[in-house]
Amino acid sequence: MIGSMVDQTTNEPEIVIEPPENGLAEDVEARLRTELGECPDVAFAHLCQITVIGQSSTPQLGLFVWLVPEAVGSLRAALNLVSEAVARALPEDVCLDVLILNSVPELLARVEKTNCLLVERDQEERRRACDAATREPGEPPPNPRRRIWPL
Question: How many domains does the chain contain in total?
Answer without folding.
Answer: 1
